[in-house]
Amino acid sequence: MAFLVESPWPILFGSIIVEAVLALALLRTGRGRLLWAMVGVGVFALLGLLAERLIVTDQEAVTNTLETAVTAVENNDIEGLLGCISPTAKQPRNASRWVLERFDVDKAAIRELKIDFNRLKSPPTANAHFQAIGRGTDRKGEIPYHAYGQRVVVHLRLERDRWLVTGYGIEDIVSEQP
After folding, report:
1. Helices 9-29/33-54 angle, 10° precision
2. Which of 54, 74, 96 is where one domain is finished?
């Protein structure tokens, strides 16, 4: 059932199909009562779309945390980035400061995001696996690479109703020269 609140498309497509069937039935039978059913389906669809907008699933919350971090990196906003990292996660906080002090990031993106959750732990944890892609320049001019791509796993923990980064791992570093 979670898929109903993660995307509006199942609600929209389902409602359109039911409305089309009811419209065909109305045309064939001429029964005015079917109009009430059509209105009911329309109201149900609107309520479903409202619920989809208001309910934030864990999947969406983790994605929002990562997107906020990407925006902060693109804006070279260290405070915004640190807001996505747990205050107890010293290594990721130090690494984030180092990266944003050393590099001027022009573009950052996440591709192929897959998130797995461990709700058996207290508090719950998650691992986000993705391809991190970025473009920028070394402020010291020592590193000639301007574009990079990395397979990354980011570890998150639910802290006070927010998913925050607690650690990360990097795999298969790929870089390009201009």
Report:
1. 180
2. 54
